[in-house]
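Working notes for the structural subgroup meeting. M.R. asked for a predicted model of this chain before we commit to crystallization trials. I am recording the input and output together here so anyone reviewing the notebook later can reproduce the run.

Input as submitted:
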Amino acid sequence: MDALREHLRGDISDVDSAVILGSGLGGFAESIENRLEIPYEQLPGFPKSTVPGHHGSLLYGTIRNRKVIAFSGRFHRYEGYSFSQTVLPVQLSHALGVRHLIISNAAGAINTRFMVGDLILIQDLFRFFEKVAAFPSEPFRLDLMPAVHHAESIAKSIGLPVRRGTYLFAKGPTYETKAEVEAFRRVGADMVGMSTVPEILEATRLGLPVIAVSLITNMAAGVQKGKLHHDEVKVAAERKKHDFARLVSGIILSGWNPNEEAAV
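Returned structure, recorded in token form:
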């Protein structure tokens, strides 16, 4: 990570915020001014992002007066990458000294009160299937509620409706079965996806403040009739890209950093 940070030193400095963009949400790049784009292939040790809707580049620029980096394309376990590789964007963000990290994803709704297009702030998570920590570490406590409260206040100030939910991590790459979705519903999951949880845990381990938001792009298997396909994810993300950009930009401009607040 030190070598990667040194590689970027001439191009990137004094970063306020980092954003990891989920499937179809790369359109947020349009909000970044004075934009520098660095393909992942030019970053030492970075894998390639192979999923449609993930462009595979690091973006650096500004949102008004705030410097921001955005990872347009993430790495998933189902692509064959280790957990250590899936959290490289988190580690790089921490190495660059960002104040906070915003993680986004496209998710399938298990909660029948959710609708396609809803923005859901992740208040808690499930990690059933395998170990999802990248490295051994000292015990740490996961508490996403302060982040949820802050994001809710930002959303309210700009007139944007958001909801809360519990996110379940599934390894993928296949969509879940109807029986699995029913089981997830019974234990309290509101939505399901194939990313985000390793990144949240790694950010928490590193002491990096994190806000995580899901865009509901489809209803999970069995919640409604019809086949599931990745194309609908991209369509739903395109329809809500402006609302998503408003929320993320609002969080960035707020300068949120609970670590600094705690030190005062």
